[in-house]
Design brief:
This protein is 40% helix and 16% strand. The protein is of the alpha/beta class.
Length: 367
């Protein structure tokens, strides 16, 4: 089977979708060497980028640089012709604004979220143009794609309700994201070396994610301050680009714009708890990353974060600073069973994900 996998949305920093793309492709290429994958990437990707390193061991793959933006008019005007000329059996686009002029080539789309909902947007959009683009393009994807993969039941229900669509089990499938089996593989000496270099010491609460409105950072910081009134020895460590330009220059707050995977694992491994009271998530992979180290998680009491976190998470009202602060207190001083967290995280596998995705490809050829 010849598959064109469109990875143009992957950029030079490691976003959630980038992690999805790279981890899925690694697992798929390892499991199915009989298939041939053409991976489309954008020309800004540097040669030392993780996608090159991850795909280098495989012979059943070709990386093709495509000079067409993954959003906007070029994604529709240019991409249809490019895909038709590549003539794959299946075309997989891992985002919500799939090119649609692909002729009879079956499209498989992965929808992680809608990029906004009725309550909150993931980006600055004063004129409403981005929201209009994503709403229109997602509607086209839902109509044109032969198979649609949702990363959680929660986001599937939300999007189908938003577009007034009936769930079609032949077309709509939920496949949970995986977690790398060795994500928590780091030794204590390496952890200590990294933390010394970062000048980070325990105890601390960890936040991982881009600093955007939907990540609820401002309430998280306010809740941490309430918690620290009775627990002054704790610091708050935040990892993520500061898109909101918040003033994070405080003695008990440490901010890193971005870190590599090894450093991220070191920070997870030594935190006292992981704070993730997001207003809007399609999945919530950082919950599993924290669980893999047996770390308590404080997260939102609705949506995908409940689906992913389950009974092991400390669920809070993300709109209430007091609720978040109470959740931090409970997580730190009354932690749940860490062994259960580690075992639970292992049930989310990229191998399992890749096998399910391949079945979607096969179904797309015959349905």
């Amino acid at each position: 089977m010849k598959i064109v996998f469109d990875a143009r949305i992957h950029l030079n920093y490691y976003s959630g979708i980038s992690r999805y793309i790279i981890c899925l492709l690694e697992a798929y290429l390892r499991l199915f060497p009989e298939d041939y994958l053409i991976i489309l990437i954008n020309p800004t990707i540097k040669k030392d980028n993780a996608i090159y390193k991850s795909l280098a061991p495989f012979k059943n793959v070709e990386i093709k640089i495509i000079n067409a933006g993954h959003m906007g008019p070029a994604n529709y005007i240019k991409m249809g012709k490019i895909i038709r000329e590549l003539a794959p059996d299946v075309y997989h686009y891992p985002h919500l604004d799939t090119p649609i002029f692909t002729g009879n080539i079956p499209i498989v789309a992965t929808v992680h979220d809608s990029n906004s909902n009725n309550k909150v947007k993931k980006f600055n959009d004063k004129l409403g143009l981005k929201s209009l683009y994503f709403k229109t393009s997602l509607g086209l994807t839902l109509k044109k794609a032969k198979k649609i993969i949702f990363v959680s039941d929660s986001i599937k229900r939300e999007i189908l309700a938003q577009y007034k669509l009936i769930d079609d089990e032949q077309k709509h499938t939920t496949i949970h994201n995986g977690l790398a089996a060795d994500f928590n593989a780091i030794d204590d000496q390496e952890v200590q070396t990294i933390l010394n270099e970062l000048e980070v010491s325990s105890p601390y609460i960890l936040i991982v994610g881009q600093i955007r409105t939907h990540k609820n950072i401002e309430r998280s910081i306010a809740a941490f301050k309430q918690f620290s009134n009775q627990n002054p020895e704790f610091k708050l460590v935040i990892v993520g680009h500061n898109y909101l330009n918040l003033d994070l220059n405080e003695s008990n707050i440490v901010h890193f714009d971005k870190v590599n995977n090894v450093t991220l694992r070191a920070l997870y491994s030594s935190c006292s708890a992981f704070l993730f009271p997001s207003l809007f998530e399609g999945f919530g992979l950082p919950i599993l990353e924290a669980f893999s180290f047996g770390k308590p998680v404080i997260t939102s009491n609705y949506g995908a974060t409940v689906e992913v976190g389950g009974d092991l998470a400390n669920l809070v009202d993300p709109l209430s600073v007091a609720s978040i602060a109470s959740g931090i207190e409970s997580a730190v001083h009354q932690p749940k069973d860490s062994n259960q967290m580690i075992a639970y995280a292992k049930t989310f596998s990229w191998t399992k994900n890749a096998k399910a995705v391949r079945q979607i490809y096969l179904d797309a050829l015959v349905d």
